[in-house]
Amino acid sequence: MENSKKMRTWLDEMNLTHPLVIAGPCSAETEEQVLKIAHSLKDTDVNYYRAGIWKPRTRPGNFEGVGALGLKWLQKVQKETGMKTATEVANRAHVELALEHDVDLLWIGARSTVSPFIIQEIADALKGTDKIVLVKNPVNPDLALWLGAIERLYAADIKNLGVIHRGFSTFEKTKYRNIPEWQMAIELQSKYPDLPIINDPSHITGKRDMIFDVAQTALDLNFDGLMIETHCDPDNAWSDAAQQVTPERLVEIMRDLKVRKESDPEEKYNKELSNLRAQIDIIDNQLLETLGKRMKLAEGIGALKSKHNVAVLQSSRWNEILGRMILEGETKGLSEEFVLRMFKAIHQESINHQEKVIKS
Ligand code: PEP
Ligand code: MN
User: Fold this and answer.
1) 3-state DSSP call for residue 207?
2) If you average pLDDT over residues 92-110, what whole number do you get?
3) Which CATH superfamily hosts domain 267-359?
4) Which CATH class name applies to 4-259?
5) Which residues contact ligand 1 via a Cβ below 6 A?
6) Would 4-259 and 267-359 be classified into the same CATH topology?
7) Does the pLDDT value for residue 125 go beyond 50?
8) What pLDDT is stored for residue 190 in this prediction?
């Protein structure tokens, strides 16, 4: 894949002709299962073979991983297939065992990234390592926690760093297991443009049917690679059964994904692009102008309500606006999800403006 990053990273050193692929089961279950999946991925584009050895389960009573024994199975994978291996580490003991057993790539799970104590412990245990270390986003959409983890690892002189975007949990039920919030990953990329970023469509979707689509979006957004959970008998996997794909399906996915160029020097393309971008810039300015006017009107309402001692929020009016805007939005090709989010944000800002007037 073309790479516009300025600093040469561990990923550039790999000289790949395709996005990086990390694949393998959610959990190592048995030696036979680990080796069977590894052998079926051996002659594919898979670069790292993943398997969870210690599984952070949200609720107790689920399969929590085979533990250190599984690291021996990963060593067998290296020996029998030549593939490099990857596993999740969540504390100092995990790090020490993984390093002792020559695991090539270590990732930090979403439930660990939320905890600065855990991250610091892992960073201290990894100090100065030249292993590849990937940091998953925290379970909650908090960019600062993700950045903080990266900073702690950099400070521990870990040179071969990268991140994994695996989506964020939400209170509301959505079609995703963890909503992608792509803008978070994009923001992280703009803060650390040289940090390789891998997408994990398995944990974002939670459903194998949706994986291709999310993976394609990631590549369209210039992600450097993918981590996809793969199992020979997905339905009977001991963890994350619904989201794992077979090795055959993984090969199809990798074959059908389109890797797009970052740009094209062709003059006509660049002219058309600047023209469209100029139009977008104009519209963005108009959007701000319009929103500013809307807030001025809200302030007028605030003043009026204040004079008559009326509450800021009138739920019935607000529900009526939302319902109408969703229908209107539909006729303009805007999704309900987007219209809802946008109007919730606008409404909040309006309330803030009204409050300011009322309190002044
Ligand atoms: C995993 O990769 O199997 C895993 C537990 O992921 P996450 O930390 O993203 O939930
Ligand atoms: Mn999993």
Assistant:
1) coil
2) 98
3) Chorismate mutase (1.20.59.10)
4) alpha beta
5) 26, 52, 56, 88, 109-111, 136, 166, 203
6) no
7) yes
8) 93
Amino acid code (one letter) for 49: Y
Taking the CA of 164 as reference, the closest ligand is 1
Q: Would you give the distance in Å from CA 258 to the centre of its chain?
A: 19
**What is the torsional sign of CA 154, 17, 4, 269?**
negative
At 102, the amino acid letter reads D
Average pLDDT over residues 55-79: 93
Q: How far is the CA of 109 from the centre of ligand 2 (A)?
A: 10
- What pLDDT is attached to residue 312? 80
Domain locations in the chain as residue ranges:
4-259, 267-359
Helix 336-359 × helix 267-307 angle, to 10°: 40
pLDDT value, residue 4:
52
List pLDDT tens digits, range 215-270: 999 999 999 999 999 999 999 999 999 999 999 999 999 999 999 887 889 999 99
Amino acid sitting at position 161 = L
DSSP result, 221-285: TT--EEEEEB-SSGGG-SS-GGG-B-HHHHHHHHHHPPPPPS----HHHHHHHHHHHHHHHHHHH
Ligand 1 atom nearest to CA at 164: 9
